[in-house]
Amino acid sequence: MSAVNLGLPRLRGGPTVSEPRPDNPALIDTFGRVATDLRVSLTDRCNLRCSYCMPAEGLPWLPGEEVLTDEELLRLLRIAVERLGVTDIRLTGGEPMLRPGLEDLVAQITALRPRPRVSMTTNGIGLAKRAGALAAAGLDRINVSLDTIDPQTFREITRRDRLSHVLAGLEAARAAGLDPVKVNAVLLRGINEGEAASLLRFCLDHGYHLRFIEQMPLDAQHGWNRRDMVTAEEILGLLRAEFELTPSPVERGGAPAERWVVDGGRGDVGVIASVTRPFCAACERTRLTADGAVRSCLFSNDETDLRGLLRGGLDDEAVANAWRMTMWGKLAGHEINDAGFAQPLRPMSAIGG
Ligand code: SAM
Ligand code: SF4
Q1: For 31-72, what is each residue's pLDDT tens digit?
Q2: Cα separation, 15 vs 282, whole angstroms
Q3: Which ligand lies nearest to the CA atom of residue 96 in the structure?
Q4: Are 27 and 86 in contact (CB under 8 A)?
Q5: Is the confidence at residue 292, as pLDDT, over 60?
Q6: Can you give the C-alpha Rg of the chain in angstroms?
Q7: Which residues are paired to 119 by β-bridges?
Q8: Which ligand is nearest to the CA of 336?
Q9: Atom of ligand 1 at shortest distance to CA of 41?
Q10: Can you tell me the distance from the alpha carbon of 138 to that of 157, in angstroms, rounded to the nearest whole number?
Q11: What are the CA-CA distances from residue 227 to residues 46, 99, 144, 190, 236 (Å)?
Q12: Residue among 350, 349, 352, 353 at smallest CA distance from 48
């Protein structure tokens, strides 16, 4: 982890942000954005090994004592909601369902006031048994990652034979009223790109809302390359071969997905084109890793160790100020398309995707 950064935030490879921060309790930055959407990684561990995310052998997981305890995590979330204006909390990872006591955590997060909207991004393993309890604990919405409905391709991508578990998890999420159930899919050239239309058909038939995500340079193996990335333009071309797509009339706001209405209203589909159509200018996100580092962007090279502040005995307002200063230093964009781009040290699974 990088050093604790309590002073003026450092810009990657650049000068410090010298502009004084106005006295504003919210998570503002120098570009006029306000972060209200918090992505929290509950664990860096995972029970799948998606090839675009981590190597077959997994990763050196964080030692238990480095992971925020429930008490520390809830304290940070309370600070975010009560002092920093966070209105939306998304639980992610690694695989968030591997966090012990998840249902209790969800209940305690939804008991915060003002009550945040709470959602989760999961690979769906184990969801079949737990969707009801998660909904009862107050979980509002869910995204389930599913890149293929072909068992062989699923095995190839995730290196595990678990497709039926994920499909059962999706059914259970819908039955539990976690509405709308969203599906996240990453297309990989030569592996599942030919399945774009069949995935959409599957989601339309089941009432799930499908969103394709362009593959990003965030894999632990640093294997991403631009040539192999299936672009938003290509994804739309593959879908248009079978479906009529018209731009969604719904205001996009800070949402990462560009949305299209399918076949005049049969359903919708989204594309998150982080690489080819960056949406950084409208970003409303702040991120907390499982070991308590706050980051202003998935691609940041700077992060602030809030866990150290908690364990060092600082009070809530001091912790809130460290969080505010981290966000004040948020860069204009992620720089993936710049010549000098350097992939962040932490992979997606350790930041929280
Ligand atoms: N394990 C959970 C899951 O897979 O849904 C949550 C964490 S995962 C890192 C969150 C999302 O990031 C998933 O939808 C996954 O497909 C996506 N993802 C992982 N690595 C990615 C990459 N290199 N580029 C784009 N999306 C990625
Ligand atoms: Fe695990 Fe999610 Fe990464 Fe797949 S994308 S390996 S399910 S953290």
Answers
A1: 999 999 999 999 999 999 999 999 999 999 999 999 999 999
A2: 23
A3: 1
A4: yes
A5: yes
A6: 20
A7: 90, 141
A8: 1
A9: 7
A10: 32
A11: 28, 36, 27, 12, 17
A12: 349
| pLDDT of 3 above 90 | no
Residue 190 in tokens: 């030569």
Ligand 1, CB cutoff 6 Å, lining residues: 46, 52-53, 92-93, 95, 121-123, 145, 184, 186, 213, 215-216, 218-219, 348-349, 353
CA distance readout (Å), 128 to 56, 165, 175? 25, 7, 10
Nearest-atom index, ligand 1, CA of 93: 7
Q: Residue 153 and residue 231: Cα distance in Å, rounded? A: 20
Amino acid symbol at 317: E
Q: For atom 3 of ligand 2, which residue has the closest CA? A: 53
Of 174, 156, 154, 173, which Cα lies nearest the Cα of 164?
Answer: 154
Band of the pLDDT at 16, cuts 50, 70, 90? low
Crossing angle for the helix pair 70-83 and 316-328, to the nearest 10 degrees: 70
Closest alpha carbon to 86 in 113, 123, 63: 113
As a whole number, mean pLDDT of residues 254-276 equals 94
The number of the ligand 1 atom at minimal distance from the alpha carbon of 92 is 6
Tokens in use for 288? 């907390």
- By most ligand atoms within 8 Å of CB, the mutation choice from 123, 125, 183 for ligand 2 is 123
Give the ligand with the smallest distance to the CA of 218: 1
Number of DSSP helices (H) and strands (E) in the chain, helices first: 10, 14
